[in-house]
Amino acid sequence: MKTMTCKQLGGACNMQFHANTFEEMAEQSKKHGMQMFQAGDKEHMAAMNKMQELMKSKDAMTKWFENKKKEFETLPDKL
Fold first, then answer.
1. So where are the chain's domains?
2. From 23, 36, 65, 74, which residue has the greatest number of CB atoms within 10 Å?
3. If DSSP codes are grouped into helix, strand and coil, which group holds residue 4?
4. CA 53 to chain centre
5. What is the Cα–Cα distance from 38 to 3, expressed in whole angstroms?
6. Residue 58 above 90 pLDDT?
7. pLDDT above 70 covers what percent of the chain?
8. How far apart (Å, rounded) are the C-alpha atoms in residues 48 and 37?
């Protein structure tokens, strides 16, 4: 199991996510982002706006996703 923070995944806080795959990690981050959006958290909203800009370019989004997945894969496994 690996650990990444919201900030490592493009977010705004140090909330930790734990998962065995990057896809699981991304899903946890997405759920957290939705909760912060619903709460109206300004820092997370700003981070989401940056991600939306990135999503406008398929190549940029694909590169970002691949880089984050590589970062995930280099992390040590923790019990």
1. 2-74
2. 36
3. strand
4. 15
5. 24
6. no
7. 99
8. 9
User: Is 5 strand, coil or helix?
Assistant: strand
Higher pLDDT, 16 or 55: 16
| Residue-wise DSSP of 25-52 | HHHHHHHHHHHHHHHT-HHHHHHHHHHH
Cβ atoms of residues 68 and 9 within 8 Å: yes
Token pair for 12: 């705004």
Q: Is the dihedral of CA 13, 63, 45, 31 positive or negative?
A: negative
Of 6-10, 16-20, 25-29, 48-52, where does mean pLDDT reach its minimum?
A: 48-52
| pLDDT tens per residue, range 30-54 | 999 999 999 999 999 999 999 888 8
Phi, then psi, of 38 in degrees rounded to 5:
-65, -30
For the chain, count helices (H), then strands (E). Answer: 3, 2
Q: Which two tokens stand for residue 15?
A: 């909330």
